[in-house]
Design brief:
The chain is built from four helices and five strands, in the order ββαβαβαβα. Helix content is about 40%, strand content about 30%. The protein has helices at about 30-40, 60-75, 85-95, 105-110, and strands spanning about 5-10, 15-25, 45-55, 80, 100-105. The radius of gyration is 13 Å and the shape is globular. It is an alpha/beta fold and about 110 residues long. The longest helix is centred in the middle third of the chain and has 17 residues, at about 60-75. About 30% of the residues are buried. A five-stranded mixed β-sheet has the order 1-2-3-4-5.
Length: about 110
Amino acid sequence: MREAAVDMVVVERDRHTDVLLAGEMDLLSAPSVRGRLRDLVADRPLVLEVSGVSFFDAEGLRTVAATARRGLECGTGIALVGLRPFPAELFRMLRMDEEVPLCSSAEEAL
């Protein structure tokens, strides 16, 4: 069995937090990522840079949705930057893009 592996780099900016993710957002890795993102979005808006995420399964999608709900509860929010074409299509099919903006750049996200 492989280890759960998602690399996460958190950079605090003036009015938001950049979170750079790389690896696979799946059943093994998503739970630990979800907890950290929920804590971060409670305080400030998040820009999630996910161009380094090679795979999202349902648990990865749920992690993004849970983070978005937490951001809504806290009056902050999230935006995704760099989502690859296949997961971007999943987000659109599931209408997740109505709650989580899919952006081409950090500037667009802000």
